[in-house]
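User: I'm putting together notes for a lab meeting next week and I want to include a structural view of one of the chains we've been expressing. I don't have a solved structure, so I'd like a prediction I can at least talk through. The sequence is below, exactly as it appears in our construct file.
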Amino acid sequence: MYNQMIECCQQNLQVQKTAWLDSILNAVILRIIELKHHLEKLEGSRFQFLGYGLIEVHHTVYDIGMTKIPKRLTRPAHIQAKLEDIFAGVKEKRMMAQIEEEAAETVDTEKPVEWWDAETNGETTSNKEPSKKDNIPEALQMTRKYVALIMAHEKTRQVITWDKHRKLTREMWEKDLMGELKPKARPEVRKRSANLIHTVFRVYFKLKRERIERCKRDELLGLNLCDAPIFGVQQEQAEVMLKNRSKLYEKHEKKHLEHRNKLKDEYMKNKKAVLCEELRDQIIEWFIEWFESVQFFYDLPKEGSVAIFRGEIPEPFDWLKENTALALKKEADKKKSPQDAIDYYHKSWDMFDIWETMDVKEKHVDKINLNDAIMQVQLEVLPEVDEEMRQELRKLKQALKNDYKTNEEEMPVNLTKRPKRKRVKKAPKSKFDDKVVDMIEKLIEQGFILEYSKQKLEDFIGDPNFGGEDLRAQTLPASPFHFEIRQYWWERCRDVSCGFRRMLLVGPDCSGRTNLIYGLASINDAVLFELDPHNVQGGSESASFLKRLVKMVVTCARALQPSVIRIKHVEKLFYSKIPPEEADMNLKIIKTYFVTKLFKTINKADNITVIATCTEPWLATASALLKQFPEVLLLPNSGYSLVVQVLKEWVYRSVSQERVQCCLREICHQEAEEEEG
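Assistant: Thanks for the context. Below is the predicted structure for the 677-residue chain, given as structure tokens.
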């Protein structure tokens, strides 16, 4: 349901529906997280294994994999443009420096060779041309090396499979000759097995036909692509299609805002005086209603008379119970279910969806824009009307007070008080001036801000733990595999735009730590900072340099938020015993600034996520490390199936389709010749 909802939000071209679709999507997300928390309390683990549940609902792990998040927090356009210009400028400087270095090297190598001096020193000059192997580019050499590795891997697999098959066949023959082979199953058992296989295949092909039908429909609507020579090509084309659709949505949104603002200005110009008079009459009628009902004038709320028109002020006879009613309403709003959001959507949009026009499916509805424009004009006019009505209310209250005094009666007192809204601490506004631009440029040049390759959460590939459910049922420990890690990391991707977060990734080399961090930063379009103890050596280990560095990092991260700060080799900062080879590193002062001072400088409202990574946690003091990073994620090692999948995808990306087909034809031809021989 979540994947279908987020696809609807991404493919939607009706600008005015976006708010309702987002509310439904957020309700679905909250329900998913609520269920996850219930399962976490029930099972005592942050990871859930969904093997048998998928079988019951006829789904696969690809159907339930959540790899996308709703609309992310974006930085202002001028800051994004400035950041791209800074990266481009630094890249150009590095290229110029590299060209100058290469030019200097060529000048040194092109010095004339004095052959007579070389002979006297016992040296001989050779005019031999460099070998062909030296002329091969390094990238091509690495490609050939990887291809040779894959060929050796495939040959080994085939030999092992052939040897195992030969061994099992021989054992079966021996058992058959000695009379130890199990007899064939009874006919009724074989019939039941065949019926079960028929049932499973019927369900499978039914689901396959439905999926193909949906895919063809989406292809006709321009939402998806079904047929492509390679799955990777299909994914790339689908992403291009989604980008074009998002550009079309932005175009419709711009037209929608222009049209709405135009209607608002026209209505303000023509109807302002009449509207003010109507609002005054309505407020006076409200005063009269209160006076006739309870002989009392209710104060105008601080937010103005707009609260009256919205129905937020209680009725005269119920005003004593206002606090209780508001508390119940607040509690009821907290417990809204996804169905409530869906019902509200139907209530708001069914009247428009019955129109058979493309104006409802795309762009915007003029009638809704007109109503919004009238509402905006009323909200702008209300403060002027409220000020006049407050003066009128003071006169009415004074007259009412005199009447009660003349009649020697006690004037009623308003005992109810509207609940005060909780003040949310606002994060300090980050300035983006020339000083911050210079800081960003210095950090990029020094390697503390990285220009990383954009990745998706799907790039952290791996299989689920299908046996985890059985192990947990037997009260045995079950470790999460890459699929469970990916689902858990989806929640962490959502938390980037929810304030300051910190976590620790622990795993061996080549376990996917960098892929997870790049995926989290790419999904949220965050700027990636990297702090490494090995990058601050020599004079950079001084307290003044580290203090200035941490201040620059936090200032730039706050100006460019959402931001991600990665601390590499964090176990070195928490060593229980410093190794002799690293005794010259002042790790204590680095820890003070990279961890303690950094966390104290970041505010809770800043959208900054700090991720520490380590490979040898047993070398660190566990209590101190967990105190600074209470949330820890253990990553599994790369297994055989994962290596095969990585190599397969690399081949699909690197080798052309024609080459793959040619190799397949050669393999089939060789197998046919062997069978004939």
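A couple of points you could mention at the meeting. Confidence is low (pLDDT under 50) at residues 118-130. Residues 238-406 form one domain.

User: Perfect, that's what I needed.
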